[in-house]
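Hello Y.,

Per our agreement to keep a running log of every chain we model this quarter, I'm adding this entry. I've kept the format consistent with earlier entries: sequence first, then predicted structure.
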Amino acid sequence: MKKEIQIFLTAIVFFTRIPCSKWIRYDSSYLHKSAKYFPLVGIIVGSIGALVFLGANYIFSTDISLLLSMFATIYTTGAFHEDGFADMCDGFGGGWTKESILRIMKDSRLGTYGTIGILLVLAIKFAALREIEVFYIPWVLIAGHSLSRFITTTLIYTHVYVRDTEDTKAKPATKSISLTMLIISCIFGVAPLFIFGNHWIFISIVPMYMSKMFLAHKFKKWIGGQTGDCAGAVQQLSEVIFYLTVVGLWKYIW
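Predicted structure for the entry above:
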């Protein structure tokens, strides 16, 4: 049990700014095994965003509350996944060979493709959440963050990690996971959907996974697999797809 707690807290340490006890020691094997807890980290991050939204909504408008909520989740993760999405946009937008794409993604500077990409993603997130009834927004945030991280683990499961050199500038990444880890990730990722009490919400998994397949095809074609930035891009895109799917379900089915 103590080892599993260490593994979970390793995920918290590497993928959020949440402070943890000093007794947590770094172990690369723990980082690789922590993928099964990514959706649980998402539940925590989404819950922080949900609480900020609920608190702010007592004082401010829904628009301001949503922006504060988005700021809270980005601050909590240190923009980890947003940075990955931006780097992916720069790499695949400006690179034409595997080597150039990997080199651009590793560069800490933000380019035109990355700037436009992340601005559009954040704008779509805000616009989609704004279309959802206020009562459901906290639950949608929690589910979006958890389920999108499960979708990310499916990329790690199906595609090999292509950076074969250890670089201090590279983001920490889980390079592979087992089927058991994927199943555990699925349980944590899907669990928040039961809160809605409506079976239609499970349809959202389909377009989210399709978005993963779309990006995964490009990753496989151009670099032969995935990197930490690719995983971050899948998380961001699938999160957006979840919000858009909820809007569609709300409009035509619920």
